[in-house]
Amino acid sequence: MKRASKAMSSLKPWQQAVLLLCAPFVIQYVYKRVLTVLAIDPTNIAARLTMNIVKSYSFGEDEFYSADGCSAATAEKRRKGFKQLAARFSLKPGGKMEAVEKDLADGLSDIRFTDTNRVPFQFQTVVRQHLKVASVVMASNVSNLLLLV
């Protein structure tokens, strides 16, 4: 405490006044920065630090259907079912929805986020390639959606 009073006494009176007037603002600024640092999610920092250590990978067409080590017959059933699902949900080539989806995906981060994170990263390549799910609807009625086609 003696050091602080000695430092203050070595200042001119106008410097002391400026220091006393600025002190609350500086304290508030530092307090807000400390709170911000404490509120940061450590997962984000850890992800940045480990991104070069942990390599990303994705399944190919064959591994996609048998990722859990199932038999060839089960993998074939999954392949057929997935192809049927893809055909049912596919957008009509050249339709309005395809153009709207492309325009919106470029500008809306929510559409990119849901497209990226709807399945685990290992399966994303195959799912994106085959499932083009509509994100825009014209109307809805309980559980029925009217799509823009």
Element-by-element helix/strand order: HHHHHHHHEE
The count of helical stretches stands at: 8
Task: Work out the helicity level.
Answer: 55-70%
The count of domains is 2
Please characterize this protein's 3D structure.
The protein is mainly alpha-helical. The protein folds into 2 domains: 2-50, no CATH class; 61-147. 64% of the residues lie in helices and 6% in strands. The chain is built from 8 helices and 2 strands, in the order ααααααααββ. Strands 1-2 form a two-stranded antiparallel ribbon. A hairpin with a 2-residue loop joins strand 1 and strand 2 (144-147). Helix 6 (96-107) crosses helix 7. The longest helix has 27 residues, at 13-39. The protein is elongated and about 85 Å long. The mean pLDDT is 80.
Q: What characteristics describe this protein?
A:
149 residues; two-stranded antiparallel ribbon; elongated; mainly alpha; 8 helices; 64% helix
Produce a short descriptive summary.
The chain is mainly alpha-helical. Helix content is 64%, strand content 6%.
